[in-house]
Structures are given as C-alpha cells and as structure tokens.
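Hi team,

As requested, here is the filled-out complex form for the magnesium ion run. I kept the field names the same as last time so the parser does not choke. Let me know if anything looks off before we queue the next batch.

— J.
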Amino acid sequence: MENREHIPTHVAIIMDGNGRWAKNLGKERYEGHIEGVDSVRECIKAARRQSVRYLTLYAFSTENWGRPIEEVNALMELFCKSVIAETDELVKQGVKVVMIGRRDRFSERVCAHLEQIESKTAQGDKLTLVLAFDYSSRDEITTAVKAIADKVLSGELKSEEICENTISQHLYTASIPDPDFIIRTSGECRLSNFLLWQASYAEMYFPQVMWPDFKQDEFDKALEVYAMRERRYGKL
Ligand code: IPE
Ligand code: IPE
Ligand code: MG
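And here is what came back:
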C-alpha cells in the first residue's frame, strides 16, 4: 500500500448487516446497531491512518423510515448518543463531519445534534466524514432538478447552459468529489438508492462480513482490493 496513487481519495460505505449480525448471535437487532457504531469509529481511524480524504457512511436511508417505529426511534437515539460521545474525539482527530440528506423530517432533538456535530467539527482538515442520514439518491436528484428548474424559470440559468456539472453542483455532495470506491458489507450486491449519480465510475466491493465485524483489518483489506483495480474510464 506504499503507492499513494492507489489510495482512494473518497471511500463510501453502505453499512449493512447489523440486524443479521445480531440475529446470528441470538441478540436483538438493536445490539447490532450499537456494535456498528464501534465499526464506524474503527473505519474513521483506519481512513485517517491510510490518508483517505473523504469517508461517506450510509447511516439511514429515506426508505428506512418504513421500519418498525421502535427501530427507527432506537436508531435516532443512537445517533444522538454517538454525537455526544464522539464529537470531542472527532475534533481531536481533525475530522470534519458533513451531513447529506433531507433535514425536514427529524425531531428537534435530532436536528440539534446534527447541527452541533457539523458546527463543532467544521475546522477539521484531515478527513471529511460525510454522513448520509435520511438520504436517498433519487430524492437528492429530484431536489436538484427542482432547484435547477426554478433557476431556469427565474432567468438565473439558461436551459442550454445545463451540463453535467450543473447537476453535480445541485446535489447534496456539491463540494465533495465522486467516490472512488464503494463498499457494501453483508454480501448484498445492490446500491439501495445510494449515490447513483456520483457512483458512475466508482469501483465496487461487496465483502461477506456484516457491518459490526467490519473493523480496521477489514478496511485495510478492502483498500488492498482497491489497489489491485485498474480504472479505465472507458478508455484503453
Ligand atoms: C444496516 O443494517 C443499518 C441500517 C440500515 C440502519 P440493517 O439494519 O439493514 O441490518 P440487516 O440488513 O437487516 O441485517
Ligand atoms: C441500506 O441498507 C441503507 C443503509 C445501510 C443505511 P438496507 O438494509 O436498508 O437496504 P436493503 O433494504 O437491504 O436494500
Ligand atoms: Mg440491511
């Protein structure tokens, strides 16, 4: 892994398999989510150590609101608790947290924690941690299309000026480079509405391990897989 060229600038992870991990051990699904927070901590450390600049974590999809209310509430509570427990350490490590997704459906308590972690970590310059929370890619693209249409209607933008970059610049990820490497744990091979536009040339990796078992060694192993890939972007 000495060759810096082979370190992805942006790693994005679909953290999947918490429920199955818990079930396999005869535990409640919630315990899988708790152990999953430890994997988040580990992957942030590994990303920092490997000089990855952006780490995006899919934490809650717009579709996840459809889970039983007890599980949704438990996930929201876990988010708030983690913000309280982890913010100081993130600041110390130079991690800047940026949230992507909708902001209009959270409770006041969740919104307050979300704003707190973003403002307290805003000066971080080692790693940008992008948390996709109430995020889905189709929702993001729909919001972007509406914003672009409004600009055309108001005369701020001409339709013939719309290019790929216009679309990128209206997504939640406007200031973030596209992911180089997308990892989904638990062996499922789908994107589940994650970064559909941004993933156009990302390398993909689907390890069998459940998210609570994805610690620093698994992150390092994933980066070794990435280093072996040849990215051609349609050229020879
Ligand atoms: C991922 O684990 C966490 C979230 C989607 C919030 P799951 O909760 O989806 O776990 P499985 O896929 O049911 O095992
Ligand atoms: C994707 O996992 C969303 C997150 C990891 C936050 P899901 O478990 O919700 O996805 P599906 O339902 O298996 O596609
Ligand atoms: Mg799942």
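Two things worth flagging: The chain has seven helices and six strands. Strands lie at 10-14, 54-61, 95-100, 127-135, 181-184, 203-205.

Thanks,
J.
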